[in-house]
Amino acid sequence: MTDPTYDQELHARRASSFGGHAAAYAEHRPDYPQAAVEWGLAGAAHDAREVLDLAAGTGKLTQGLVDLGLTVTAVEPDEGMLAQLSKLLPDTTALTGKAEDIPLADESVDAVFIGQALHWFDLEPAFAEIHRVLRPGGVVVALWNHDDLTVEWVVEFSKIVRTGVSRLFRDENEGLSAAGFEPFEDHEFPHTHRRTIDTLLATVATHSNFLVAEPAERDAALAAAREYLLAVPEAGAGEFDYPLVTTVFRARKSESGGRGSSPA
Ligand SMILES: C[S@@+](CC[C@H](N)C(=O)[O-])C[C@H]1O[C@@H](n2cnc3c(N)ncnc32)[C@H](O)[C@@H]1O
After folding, report:
1. Phi/psi of residue 116, each to 5°?
2. What whole-number distance in Å separates Cα of residue 190 and Cα of residue 244?
3. 174 found inside a domain
4. Residue 16 to residues 20, 96, 200, 251, 259: CA-CA distances in angstroms?
5. What pLDDT, in 10s, does the model give residues 27-67?
């Protein structure tokens, strides 16, 4: 993170917190809109066929890439997350690995996708590795699902559950750049997640700030969130569409292939 006051030890604990709750993650986290994935792919200079899903988790984004008929390799450091991915997508190549040391050959993919995870990477070595595995003209695509903060009751809810690390990263990195890549472009896509009060709280409980919280603190925040939702007409009557926005950043690897010319 760019904020020097950010607690690095906590950051590392949050980055590795998901695997112990991989089944809940698989059940309760949202997928990504197909239009967002396609916009990312369209950033490549040529037709993208072979793609890497980096930090693939339980396969939420991997599934969307497979559905587009792409040849997908999933890379993920956590064995628990990877086991869920292989259960969902048994025919997809799934490798253990980290963004800072990607287990793929040089110039072997047309696109590198990163769902809800760029904020966990050590950016300098990660972008060097992403650059290495991409073919010239290939594209790096980072996506995040966020609460839709144009909706008043969602703003209040999101204040109660305070799960903002990815949004914080997004806001701090409006000027994101990486050596050897053309400038990043970004675009937002409307999205929703079909939820009930119970399943929305189950989703929130898979966010890293809840996974690393003391049980008493976590339970108190979830109780406050439930009380708030019970008073919200949009959420009170069984199933509802929780309003999300999917933000996508994409940047093309320079056709020249080198890393010397752009700012890091
Ligand atoms: C919020 S999950 C996102 C999973 C999946 N991409 C999705 O969209 O649902 C973040 C994932 O990043 C992984 N991760 C954390 N640090 C990483 C790193 N340095 N390199 C690669 N993956 C990492 C975690 O293990 C976790 O599976």
Report:
1. 55, 35
2. 6
3. yes
4. 9, 14, 22, 27, 30
5. 999 999 999 999 999 999 999 999 999 999 999 999 999 99
How is the beta sheet containing 71-76 ordered, strand by strand? 93-96, 71-76, 50-54, 109-115, 134-147, 240-252, 185-195
Of 230, 236, 232, 206, the closest CA to residue 218 belongs to 206
Q: Is 141 in the pocket of ligand 1 (CB under 6 A)?
A: no
Pocket test for ligand 1, best of 8, 116, 140 (most atoms within 8 A of CB): 116
Domain assignment of residue 60, yes or no: yes
- Tens-place pLDDT, residues 174-204: 778 999 999 999 999 999 999 999 999 999 9
Is the model more confident about 214 or about 90? 90
195 strand-pairing partners: 240
What residues contact 163, with CB distance under 8 A and at least 6 apart? 204, 207, 208, 209, 210
Q: Under a CB-based contact definition with an 8 Å cutoff, are residues 77 and 96 in contact?
A: yes
Pick the closest to residue 162 from 218, 234, 216, 241 (CA basis): 218
* Cβ(26) – ligand 1 distance below 6 Å: no
Does 225 reside within a domain? no
Number of domains in the chain: 1
Task: Tell me which residue range forms the domain holding 95.
Answer: 8-151+161-193+242-252
Residues near 159 by beta carbon (within 8 Å), at least 6 away in sequence:
none
pLDDT reported for residue 260: 64
> Can you give the CATH number for the domain in which 146 is found?
3.40.50.150
Q: Is residue 235 assigned to a domain?
A: no
